[in-house]
Amino acid sequence: MRGATRILEEIKLAQRLAEAFDSTAPVRAKIDQNGLGHDAVDMLKTWAENTRHRGQIVGVIVSEPSGHDDPCTVKLLLNERAEMWLATRIPLQPHPATGVGRLRLRTDRNAAIQLTTPQLGYNSGGPIVVESRKSMKSRGMNSTDRAKAVLLAPYELDPIIRRGGLLV
Question: 128-133 long-range CB contacts below 8 Å, 24 or more apart?
Answer without folding.
Answer: 128/76, 128/77, 128/78, 128/82, 128/86, 129/78, 129/79, 129/82, 130/81, 130/82, 130/85, 130/86
